[in-house]
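lol ok so funny story. i was supposed to be doing the assay writeup but got distracted and ended up predicting the structure for this chain instead. priorities right. anyway since i did it might as well share w the group, maybe its usefull for someone
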Amino acid sequence: MSWRKDDRRAERGYHHGNLKEALLQAALGLIAEKGPAGFTFADAARSAGVSAAAPYRHFRDRDDLLASIAQRGFEQFEVTLAAAWDDGRPDTVTAFMRVGKAYLAFARNEPAFYSAMFESGIPVDANPLLTAAGERAFGVIRAAAERLAALTPPGVTRPPAMMMALHIWSISHGVASLFGRGDAARRKLPMPPEELLEAGVLIYLRGLGFTTDRRPPPEAEAATRAAEAERPAGPWGKIPK
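and the output, tada:
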């Protein structure tokens, strides 16, 4: 099912007895129109065409509804990032740059999901399913950071991969939130946001001493993949393949 903004208006409403899906669609439409803080639980019920009491069959309250939307958003986000990463093919730097473009594309194409995921104020650790979905999505960025760390030139101290992942995530999220989104909150930029993100990441990597225009030798890639296979799940889940 498509959750894009242009499809939601036509599909919104309580159809085929699927109350939960109707409420999720209605809430996504309201988020797209008013933001995650701009509607009430009753508004979502009214938009879905059901009574004010009906949503309580599936959700404890408005926050629970928003958490479900954010969870679904992170699940789609993970799929998008993982497809772009493609296990680091054909080489680490090329694959990583695709991940950045995919991050921006998600913010642009799914602004309601993006807002629910990052701007709703829902604590990600308050819902185990939401927490797990967020960890899996971040795991794709962490996987890329692990491979990037394998590019550390001789004589340069290898930076912690988790630190790299958090720094690069912050850069990507900042560009996406300010310049790459698909709603009215997008700021004007005299260049494509993809170019801004790529330049920022390359400057960051070069500042760490990386030579980003070379590919790691095959044995380095093989060693990194073997280490990944042996490493247990961390605080952001197992690295996706």
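The longest helix spans residues 62-85. Residues 168 and 201 are 7 Å apart (CA to CA).
back to the writeup now i swear
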